[in-house]
Fold this protein.
Amino acid sequence: MADGKAPGEFDLIRLLRERQVVHPAVRLGIGDDAAILSPAAGRELLIAADMLMEGTHFTFPPLTPREAGRKALAVNLSDLAAMAAEPLAAFVTVALPRGRSASFALELHEGVLDAARPFGMSLAGGDTNAWDGPLVISVTVCGQSSAAGPVCRSGALPEDRILVTGSLGGSLSGHHASFTPRVREALTMQQTAPIHAMIDISDGLAADLHHILDESQVAAVLEAARIPLTPEAHRQATAEKPALVRALSDGEDFELLLTAAPDDAARLLALDLPGCPLTDIGSIHAGSGCQLRQADGSLIPLERSGWQHQL
Amino acid sequence: MADGKAPGEFDLIRLLRERQVVHPAVRLGIGDDAAILSPAAGRELLIAADMLMEGTHFTFPPLTPREAGRKALAVNLSDLAAMAAEPLAAFVTVALPRGRSASFALELHEGVLDAARPFGMSLAGGDTNAWDGPLVISVTVCGQSSAAGPVCRSGALPEDRILVTGSLGGSLSGHHASFTPRVREALTMQQTAPIHAMIDISDGLAADLHHILDESQVAAVLEAARIPLTPEAHRQATAEKPALVRALSDGEDFELLLTAAPDDAARLLALDLPGCPLTDIGSIHAGSGCQLRQADGSLIPLERSGWQHQL
């Protein structure tokens, strides 16, 4: 927050300094040129960054400033979850519309703190500037690897089972602004069995599975009948876009997609993760590309038809 | 870059993956949900973030996209320099105007790489999104402390001398877009003698000195005649705003302001820092507030009249 020039920023800094949680790994938070982090010995640092823009990622209404702040951190925490990392600190930069009330920036940051609190992480720095444009909020999160080390997209192996947390589709009707990132579930799963590859589903199941396949240089078969669908995916289903297609392509589910050896997958499926069903939806194979096994048993190619290119 | 949705972003990611420097502490850069950093054993992590907006921090022209990218990283590197940290990695999020050519994003990132290269640091992640607004670029930098540990704003002690690198004032005529952050100079100084407190001058000498005084709970006397003025400060001088006032209040100098015990200050002043004069401009005292000793020897109060409140 050192160099921010928004009116009232120093009041905001004082308020945030007073009410934030301080993670023990954060030796110095808001108030200097940089924050100082002391991760646990032998742990690696995981860092991810995402920017959300008013009019693109959300509008006011239906979202409140607090919900926008919450989402801005949550989407980043979902990236840390995908690496099986423990969140330490967030850094938040904001371009704040000049016309908005003084409480707007505070509510936005309250939302960030809402998302941070369950994980005991700090809001350790940032920068707030006023301007004449719409709201832009950029969040960078810093986490540390668990004792088992981080999980990448590149580790999927032939024979692996493909698992997914929760259920998919129709997120934009509300889930995208209220989800809890699967941080705890990722850490619990990784303590239970080795996870070979993991990603969070932001672009859509099909697109994000393709990211794993690309980085791991393997192929996959997804079982259409096993893909867990949300009630929203069913509710929004149309002839052109049935519930399954929504689950494959809607995106912003912020669930975890992972692969593990068959025995390990069985141990993961036996876990009782509160409020977080885990489902086996397919398998990894040698080769390249992705196929979808339909209800009649036939296989069809599954393109990377996620967020960027709707089916 | 994992979740970006700008058209062509995957081409940009491929290009950046190909041409970036990889710092040995960066085990995994662009291309997964998060980057993986392995700082040297026993070192702390320093993290700073700043957002720059078109129309507020720069306009096109006079700046080119490449200069804007360069500045966006350089202002953050200046924050790492102020902590005496070694830069490791940068994370860059961008809201990209839809009307701009496809090469705009690439030039912007080339500018980031220009600023990163001299320090061997990586561009390790980020997020690029297209929208209908002006350019917004947010950079988070991650560095590691040197063997002597980081330098904070809070360590100034009575009797300390106040030193400043380079010369001050008139930065907006060009220096703000072309400066080299004082990273190497900070590391060299810290190896030479203990630095008690340090900050980079972004808000203006007076305002930034007040930040040190506030955090260290001490007072200061600045010697007006010793403050090093740029040729630009002289050139832009007017009756209402003489060169000295420009040096005290213009801001965006991105020079380092530091304090050290008298003997240590003498050792620092004896250093030969190429292209970086170091000047003793005053002293720290017990108490609070800041005074300016004028040419006639008289003392006047020096308010925190930096960027936010022009004299």
In short: Chain B touches chain A through 68 residues (CB under 8 Å).
